[in-house]
Amino acid sequence: MAAMMGAAAGTPGGLILDMDGVLYVGERPKPGLVELFAVIGERPFVLVTNNSTLSAADCRARLARMGVAVPLVAILTVSQVVGCLLPTLAPRASRALVLGSPPLRAEVVAAGMRLVHSAAEVVVVGLDRALSHQRLTEAVRSVSAGAALLATSFDPILLTEEGIEPGAGALVAAIAACVGEKAVCVGKPSPLIFEIAAAQLGMDPGQILVVGDSLRSDVAGGQAVGASTALIHSGLPEPGLAGGPAPDLSFDGLVELARWLAERWSGEGGGGGGGGEPG
Ligand SMILES: [Mg+2]
Fold first, then answer.
1. Whole-model pTM?
2. Ligand 1 midpoint to CA 164 (Å)
3. 92, 173, 208, 271: which has the fewest C-beta neighbours closer than 10 Å?
4. Active-site residues: which are they?
5. Residue 244: what pLDDT?
6. Whether the Cβ atoms of residue 128 and residue 99 lie closer than 8 Å to each other
7. Distance in Å, CA 173 to ligand 1 centroid
8. Rounded to the nearest whole angstrom, what is the distance from the C-alpha of residue 211 to the centroid of ligand 1?
9. For residue 272, what pLDDT is reported?
10. In this structure, are strands 28-29 and 24-25 parallel, antiparallel, or unpaired?
11. Which residues surround ligand 1, an ion (CB under 5 A)?
């Protein structure tokens, strides 16, 4: 099926690509993945994810298993963004309680924090598949006593090979329901992660196309920093978004995106494009 082309999206200079649901679902690559990276070639891109359970090296290894080689520096995980921004967002904190996976905890430690099980000064919430009621209780007590609350994302659910599962946003909502405290989100749709990605590209957001499968995280976040946006239809359910953000472009999948990029870039010369089939 042909791409629906929006008037607002010009020829992108660089790409910010969401990974989960766009490039792959779990260990299953999306059709057109290898073709897309053939079209991208040497053009600048950053792969971003709100998934805090994988390190950048994990993401790179997963893509390699799918036949796509990307440099480590082209991957930006929300855990890395947490580590980067912790000193700014919680400047006086040194005791951190992390609801999350080893890659997230490693970034928090690398940012100079001591991991604690109670009485934390900052609570960092990512996807925690081993969460216990006791640890949730200690997070609630710390925030109630004044700890800063940082979230890797507000995404309530994520897509896996087995179906949907509660995301970090569901855990944040549980804490917020107890204490009425608003969390600071560092992942998409926060401008924070997009600004870091744009800085890595060395580009003004107006030159960048943000590609994702979430209206709430990718499209709204990209629009907030002034980038063009493209929605890939993955089947991610996003209830309650009627009349929500409208992407500049909409594609059924990566095959259609690759074709559109190849067409846009073919008229330019230079770069590494040219591998796609003209529509
Ligand atoms: Mg996604």
1. 0.89
2. 12
3. 92
4. 18, 20
5. 77
6. yes
7. 20
8. 9
9. 43
10. antiparallel
11. 18, 20-21, 213
Runs of H (alpha helix) within the chain: 33-40, 56-65, 78-89, 102-110, 133-144, 168-179, 191-201, 220-224, 254-266
β pairing state of 184-185 and 95-99: unpaired
Q: Distance (Å, rounded) from C-alpha 90 to C-alpha 144?
A: 16
Mean pLDDT per 10-residue interval, the chain, length 279 residues: 51 96 94 98 97 96 98 97 96 97 97 97 97 97 96 89 92 95 92 96 97 94 97 81 86 97 83 38
Contacts with 240 (C-beta within 8 Å, 6 or more apart), sequence order: none
3-class SS shares of the chain: helix, strand, coil, % to 5: 35, 20, 45
Mapped onto helix, strand or coil, the DSSP state of residue 247 is: coil
Rounded to whole angstroms, the maximal C-alpha distance in the chain is 59
Which amino acid is present at 24? Y
AA letter at 278: P
Please, what's the b/e burial string for 160-196 (b: 16 or more CB within 10 A of its CB; e: otherwise)?
eeeeeebbbbbbbbbbbeebebebebbbbbbebbbeb
